[in-house]
Write a structure and sequence with these properties.
35% of the residues lie in helices and 26% in strands. The chain is of the alpha/beta class and 392 residues long. Bound molecules: flavin-adenine dinucleotide.
């Protein structure tokens, strides 16, 4: 009997993890990626909870640790850059996790470690799918026709193939927060801490060290505005207007973004779906359940989903049973991150001076020795007592 065949659409964390684990369990794997070449870039992601075990089983724990961003702590600063509070870090969790890595480095590590025989097609997308009893036939815009036992969609939060094949089942919840991530030159004053500054008007500025000799910056703003669909220059012009007079290092970040090749704009949107599979098609990673940086753990869940999918398929010869097992295992992890405490956006993004003062009081309480264990729990994601399902 020939090996089963899978087409994976999207070559980032979720798609490459699925490719790794499915190839390891005997599948013929073709990955189709829209970008013309592997996509480096992107900012800090972390590997937490059960994803640490998946990484270990992949044989990549030490490699990912070695690619650490070098960040050692997370602090709140005021407009003069003085530290006003330090968030708990250290150990596997905490604001700065043990495994902090840039998205591009993470995806590259998984790519470089793929088992022999995974085919990757860059610069192509799926244009059509048709399913019969025995297979799903995938036609790409580039003219390939691939007949497979399974199609895995790993196209991230704005997945077009998901939208086509799961029409009416995609619940998009905009959180009313826009984040602009970018890479800027490092200065002598940048140290090994994540520095977090809040200004009135629901604005935040973050500076984080990286392992490439540059600084990773985020401008975040609590405002429902679709910047992600604008071209880069128009989006940055809007961000500049929005951050006028915000203080601290804002002007430096804005100037740095204007000159940066690596700017990523995201209007934080949760994806919620009643099911992540239909026939011979299933969703993994952000395409299925984007949790946004507000919930945290998107990269950990994406990595874990590839493993759990392969485990379901290895144990259940029936596709429906396998995809149901995958979904049942992943859903509690996703649900616990998607349920944001009420009022969390308002608390994280105060609009007024009074709001900033109240938020500072909450932070001080949470970082006190008494409540530090509670604060540490807030950063725990992909956390479960359940063992990973076996691969056979
Ligand atoms: C370039 C980039 C930069 C990012 N930067 C950050 C960041 O700074 N901070 C942060 O918190 N998160 C960032 N993310 C998101 C983060 O990677 C994900 O939340 C998380 O890792 C889950 O990964 P994923 O594989 O499910 O989705 P993603 O990492 O979003 O990957 C989706 C992949 O699918 C490809 N794709 C999309 N549509 C199609 C299509 N129709 N056909 C074929 N391929 C398609 C994309 O090019 C991409 O390679 C970034 C993602 C990308 C792609």
């Amino acid at each position: 009997m020939s090996n089963p065949r899978v087409v994976v659409s999207g070559a980032s964390v979720a798609g490459l993890s699925a490719a790794h684990w499915l190839r390891s369990t005997g599948w013929e794997v073709t990955v189709v990626e829209r970008a013309p070449a592997f996509r480096d870039g992107g900012q800090n992601v972390d590997v937490r909870g059960v994803a640490r075990e998946v990484l270990d089983r992949m044989g990549l724990f030490a490699a990912v640790k070695a690619l650490n961003t070098t960040e050692t702590a997370a602090v709140f600063v005021d407009e003069r850059g003085e530290v006003t509070a330090e968030l708990p870090s250290g150990g596997p969790d905490g604001a700065t996790a043990e495994l902090e890595i840039l998205r591009g480095d993470f995806a590259r590590a998984i790519l470089d470690h793929l088992p022999e025989g995974v085919e990757i097609v860059y610069g192509d997308t799926i244009s059509q799918t048709a399913e019969d009893e025995d297979a799903v036939t995938v036609t790409t815009a580039g003219g390939r026709v691939l007949r497979a036992d399974l199609l895995v969609i790993a196209e991230g939060v704005r997945s077009a193939t998901r939208d086509r094949l799961f029409d009416g089942l995609v619940d998009r919840r905009a959180l009313g927060v826009t984040m602009v991530f970018g890479t800027i030159p490092r200065t002598a004053a940048d140290d090994d801490r994540w520095r977090w500054y809040s200004a009135t008007g629901g604005r935040q500025v973050h500076l984080r060290p990286d392992n490439h000799g540059t600084t990773r910056a985020i401008l975040a703003c609590a405002r429902a505005e679709d910047l992600a669909s604008l071209d880069r220059d128009r989006a940055l012009a809007r961000v500049r207007a929005r951050f006028a007079g915000a203080g601290w290092e804002t002007e430096r970040v804005l100037d740095g973004f204007d000159a940066s090749e690596d700017v990523y704009v995201d209007g934080l949107t949760q994806i919620r779906m009643p099911t992540w599979h239909r026939g011979r098609v299933c969703l993994v990673g952000d395409a299925a359940w984007c949790v946004t940086p507000m919930g945290g753990g998107g990269a950990s869940l994406a990595l874990t989903s590839g493993y759990v999918l392969a485990a379901g398929l290895a144990r259940h010869p029936d596709t429906e049973a396998a995809l149901t097992a995958y979904e049942n295992w992943m859903r509690p992890l996703v649900d616990s991150v998607q349920k944001l405490p009420p009022g969390v956006v308002r608390l994280a993004y105060p609009r007024t001076r009074l709001g900033l003062t109240l938020r500072a009081l909450v932070v001080r309480a949470l970082t006190s020795p008494l409540l530090a264990p509670l604060a540490a729990r807030l950063t725990r994601v992909a956390d479960t007592d359940r063992p990973l399902p076996p691969l056979a």
